[in-house]
Amino acid sequence: MPDHDNSSRTVTVPTCDHGPVAVWEPDWCTGSESEHQPGGYRVDITHASPDYEFTTSTSRGTAVVLRACFEQRPFTERPPGHVPFVNVEMDGDWHPHGSDDLRRLADTLTAHADEFRKLADRLDGLTNAFDAIHGGHTCGGEP
């Protein structure tokens, strides 16, 4: 278990390749063992916030559409580098986003919302046509 020092906002993480590593811990980091796994590699040290869940109500209850969290990997050599970013779960995988990427995602989701409204309008037309033909009765029902 990492040794937390809240006064200096550092955490010391034991690693298998660099021994104990003291790193600054952002205030949004959960600091759980899954983020600061003792005995792992220094490059794998990750700061992560709690997940933000974007949900919607369905006929079967609440469903998570997207999940996102703040993240930082202070020793990575891979993109997005050492700076904080937002990791967004889509289609079963996590995708790192900078602020411009998040704005593009928001624009894309807005465009998708417009398409859903068009689908709803079309469904209204299909439902009205069905009701006109079948007099409001479901298929196979008694007239």
Task: Please give a structural write-up.
With 143 residues, the protein is of the alpha+beta class. 25% of the residues lie in helices and 33% in strands. It has 1 helix and 8 strands. It has one helix at residues 99-134; strands at 3-5, 10-15, 19-24, 47-48, 52-58, 61-72, 85-90, 93-97. The strands form 2 sheets. Strands 4, 5, 6, 7 and 8 form a 5-stranded antiparallel beta sheet that branches. The protein has a 3-stranded antiparallel beta sheet with strand order 1-2-3, with no helix packed on it. A hairpin with a 3-residue loop joins strand 2 and strand 3 (19-24). The termini are far apart.
Produce the secondary structure layout:
Blueprint: E1 3-5, E2 10-15, E3 19-24, E4 47-48, E5 52-58, E6 61-72, E7 85-90, E8 93-97, H1 99-134
Antiparallel strand pairs: 1-2, 2-3, 4-6, 5-6, 6-7, 7-8
Total helical segments: 1
**Poorly predicted ranges:** 1-8
What is the overall shape?
elongated
Major sheet description: 5 strands, antiparallel
Beta-strand residue fraction = 25-35%
Estimated radius of gyration: 24 Å
Terminal residue distance:
70 Å
Summarize this, please?
This protein is of the alpha+beta class and 143 residues long. The chain has one helix at 99-134, and strands at residues 3-5, 10-15, 19-24, 47-48, 52-58, 61-72, 85-90, 93-97. It is built from 1 helix and 8 strands; from the N terminus they run ββββββββα.
